[in-house]
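One-letter codes give the sequence; the integers encode the fold. A sample entry reads:
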Amino acid sequence: MPYDPRPTSQGGNRGIDEQFSRKAPRGMYRVIGVDTFDGGDWLDGDHDTLDAAIKVAQVKSGTMTVMYIYDDKGKNLDSKGIF
């Protein structure tokens, strides 16, 4: 699917804040992946520690795949990967 920045409810391929939240469960850290080629995104998982989330993001990121880490307030703490 070509890149379409609109949310999925409007026919695009951005699911964040519609299909899943940036906010991790209380006391956890959420990793969200983005395919920068087609704009698709997904919830990769929630982790008990920031270190664990960073390790997962490092392993799963790459060229055209960016992994973002959020806290339980929805604040972006880090990202890994290259656009």
In short: Residues 8-80 form one domain.
